[in-house]
Design goal:
With about 700 residues, this protein is α/β, with parallel strands linked by helices. The protein contains 30 helices and 19 strands. The protein is globular and about 85 Å long. The protein starts with a strand and ends with a helix. The structure holds (2S,3S)-3-hydroxy-2-methylbutanoyl-COA.
Length: about 700
């Protein structure tokens, strides 16, 4: 096996190169190799040593694929201590992504030279961890500014080279060829007082003023963490650096790191790290290459069409937007410009930037102007009649080889494709509102969708910075389909005695960004009302939504009408109980002869979350989704599910499918039975003592 760490002498300077594609992670052979090569440089009396990564990036961190495996010496903290202790100066060349353990390696070096385009960060908290190789102890000692250190350690947000130089994290920033600059620096160095460059020797002292700074920062960090524990733990370790000696601080950091590593939150976040990299990968049976897309057409300039047009214009594509009338185009383009202009105040974009993006948008009321588009995305009114009509016209005017996509959120894409003579070129591309912000894209692979069409949609997701998951055709695809049983349980729990506010709070305490009733008010209660009117619901289904329907009929449409399940005060932009909703709910309960009961938060969480996962299991068993981890990506990226719980499928794995299956069986034998359709897959996995994660490993 070729060595992943090698030395090249440049005069008296040992240039030690780390070559572990794709990101130079600190796998065991890299850790061993660094010590081997650095030891040799010292043995051979090199004047200095330089650590540099191959491929234009330094080190992106510990090897996440090694987590959970038996530890193999030398462990990273020890490697970094040994780098620092070496008797010749060691310079780190910071390029590309210098993250996590990679940044910690640079802190063990005596000097740091950064390329102007480099990114430096400690993203461990995004994995439910904390910098576990002295980052919480060395960074505060190097930066001296506690707030800067605390922010990097607890937020996980990377900074650029200029900021790194400004806060004292790097000694020099060069624009290109950082290695040359490091060689020049190395040749000018001498070994005098190398101790002064050993960060672990720097003393920190806590003062009452600093205590106050930390007190304030800790409150803010906990608020921002929204239930995630790693940021708080990371901040506590950084704070300790001011109170205890380095070696004790290292023990605290190690102990905290190991506790986090085995905790549910880190297991979930590590799982999501790989899940979001799996979901853009096409199923194994898909072959070929993406088609070339130069020009994009959008049908509809409403909320969705406008957001999708913004998405492609921001990615640099020329976009032609078609509407039925010029008034609709004026409205749509006006909204787009306003949305972009909103970023001017916050400095996210300049007026020229807005103008440049607007220049990429053209408008038309004629399908002929879409003839030369390579991709057309339809975001017209959500009825099959309208979509059939649009696709007939597209089929008649748009050039052969173009891809025709529908943004439908639940309709049958096979039926839409059948309206054209080119069903192989048709698929679904379901965006989530607001489409220019929400990262999720459900790509619906219809029966006849060609492989290269699917691959093109995946390529467009990457180019427009969306996280895609592939769904087959099925009512509501993955996300919206699973929402139905989730909302059904929430509405049933209201009939049985829980209030919308109690349910929402139980679920935001669980970690959801918003509870189901607040979300319904946000979306508009009339949306669900209309959808229910369009379907022939069973009596039992209708019964569940009696209160919600009565609210709409009484004019309580949600936020847009000032009241729905909650009352909304525009002055304070807050929500409070809507007494009319309480009355309607009580009225419906008595009409239905329900004897209400006190309902625990635990029951609220179990019935809603298990209903969600049960439907997810149906989605898997029917082949609508390829992986359980894809289902979790959908809920992470499209529905505000707490990432530190993974997703609905990972969550029930964590609970244990035996318990989940037993509860579903219990509810299915109760008066609730009509509302439960136990998944055979879930029940079977539970019987076999398996998990969805194992199902993924065996089936995808
Ligand atoms: N370990 C193992 N594999 C990794 C990896 C890592 N750290 N980072 C990326 N990969 C794989 C990834 O799974 C994918 O594999 C391929 O590389 C390309 O990744 C002690 C304990 C660096 C910004 O959290 O943020 O250090 O799918 O698609 O978009 O304190 O990767 O091709 O098979 O993301 O160009 C801290 C994680 C670790 C950085 C590049 N470091 N990585 O983004 O490529 S914990 C991180 C990233 C730690 C210490 C602690 C990104 C990137 P595959 P990619 P990209």
């Amino acid at each position: 096996m070729t060595k992943s760490v090698t030395t090249e002498m440049h005069g008296e300077i040992a240039v030690i190169r780390i070559d572990n594609p794709p990101v130079n992670a600190l796998s065991h052979h890299v850790r061993e190799g660094m010590l081997r090569e650095l030891g040799a440089a010292q043995e051979n009396n090199a004047k200095a040593a330089i650590l540099v990564g191959r491929g234009g990036t330094f080190i992106a961190g510990a090897d996440i694929k090694e987590f959970g495996k038996p530890p193999k010496e030398p462990m990273l903290p020890e490697v970094i201590h040994q780098i620092e202790a070496i008797t010749i100066p060691v310079i780190a060349v910071i390029e590309g992504n210098t993250l996590g353990g990679g940044l910690e390696v640079t802190l063990g070096c005596h000097y740091r030279v950064a390329d102007a385009k480099a990114k430096l960060g400690l993203p461990e908290v995004a994995l439910g961890l904390l910098p576990g190789a002295s980052g919480t102890q060395r960074l505060p000692r190097l930066l001296q500014n506690p707030v800067e250190a605390l922010t990097m350690i607890s937020s996980g947000r990377p900074i650029n080279a200029a900021k790194a130089e400004a806060i004292g994290l790097v000694d020099k920033v060069v624009d290109g060829n950082a290695l040359e600059a490091a060689l020049e620096m190395a040749n000018g160095l001498n070994n005098d007082n190398l101790d002064a460059r050993r960060i672990s020797k720097i003393e920190l002292t806590m003062t009452p003023e600093l205590e106050a700074v930390f007190d304030g920062a800790m409150v803010e960090i906990a608020q921002k963490a929204k239930g995630s524990i790693a940021p708080v733990k990371a901040a506590e370790c950084a704070r300790a650096a001011y109170n205890i000696p380095f070696d004790e601080g290292m023990k605290l950091e190690r102990q905290s790191f190991l506790e986090l590593m085995v905790g549910d939150q880190s297991q979930a976040l590590q799982y999501m790290f790989f899940a979001e990299r799996q979901s853009p990968k096409p199923p194994k049976d898909v072959t070929g290459a993406p088609r070339d897309v130069k020009k994009v057409g959008i049908i509809g300039a409403g909320t969705m069409g406008g957001g999708i047009a913004m998405t492609y214009a921001e990615a640099g594509f020329p976009v032609t937007i078609l509407e039925m009338t010029n008034e609709a185009l004026d409205r749509g383009l006006g909204t787009i410009e306003k949305n972009w202009a909103r970023g001017i105040k916050s400095g996210r974009i300049t007026e020229a930037g807005v103008a440049e993006r607007m220049s990429r948008l053209s408008r038309t009321t004629s399908y002929d102007d879409l003839a030369d588009c390579d991709l057309v995305i339809e975001a017209a009114f959500e009825t099959m009649e309208v979509k059939r009509n649009v696709f007939r016209k597209l089929d008649a005017t748009v050039k052969q080889g173009a891809i025709l996509a529908s943004n439908t959120s639940y309709l049958n894409v096979d039926e839409i494709a059948a309206e054209t003579n080119r069903p192989a070129d048709v698929l679904g591309m379901h965006y989530f509102s607001p489409a220019n912000i929400m990262p999720l894209l459900e790509i619906v692979r219809a029966e006849k969708t060609a492989d290269d069409v699917l691959l093109t949609a995946l390529a467009m997701a990457k180019k427009t910075r969306k996280t895609p998951t592939i769904s087959r055709v099925g009512h509501g695809f993955i996300g919206n389909r699973m929402l139905t049983p989730y909302l059904r349980q929430a509405n049933l729990l209201v009939l049985e005695g829980a209030s919308p506010a109690q349910i929402d709070k139980a679920l935001t305490d669980f970690g959801w960004a918003m509870g189901p009733f607040a979300v319904s008010d946000l979306a508009g209660l009339d949306i669900g009302y209309k959808s229910r009117q369009d379907q022939e619901l069973s009596e039992d289904e209708t019964r569940i939504y009696t209160a919600a329907d009565r609210l709409v009929e009484a004019g309580h449409l949600g936020q847009k009408s000032g009241s729905g399940f909650y009352a909304y005060d525009p002055e304070i932009r807050g929500r409070s109980e809507n007494s009319a909703a309480t009355e309607i709910i009580e009225q419906v309960r008595s009409e239905l002869g329900i004897n209400t009961r006190a309902i625990s938060d635990e029951e609220i969480v179990e019935r809603t979350q298990f209903a969600l996962a049960n439907e997810g299991a149906h989605v898997l068993a029917e082949g609508v989704a390829t992986r359980a981890s894809d289902v979790d990506v959908v809920y992470n990226y499209g529905y505000g599910y707490p990432r530190w719980r993974g997703g609905p499928m990972h969550y029930v794995d964590t609970v244990g499918l035996k318990h989940v299956a037993a509860k579903i069986a219990e509810w299915s034998d109760s008066a609730q039975s009509v509302h439960w359709n136990p998944s055979d897959l879930l029940m079977t996995l539970a019987d076999e003592g398996k998990s969805f994660r194992q199902w993924d490993a065996e089936n995808s």
